[in-house]
Amino acid sequence: MEIVKLLLDCHKLLLSIADKARNSELAKSKAFEYIIEANEKIASALTRLRMEGLLDPEDIKLLEEAMESIIR
Prior knowledge:
Layout: H1 2-22, H2 30-51, H3 57-71
Helix pairs in contact: 1-2
């Protein structure tokens, strides 16, 4: 499912943006909070897709690999 790949790309991009924003004047801004909230919503969407059984085995593997790489 291309949607899973796009969501994972967004998730990674927002993590990178948050890393840069955290070390800038944006760190204490409302904009930084919105970046965090956006990534939380993407992570929630991925989790719901998995829990609702809407992913095929290839997407599940892709999602699990992505989540494992975040934990390491």
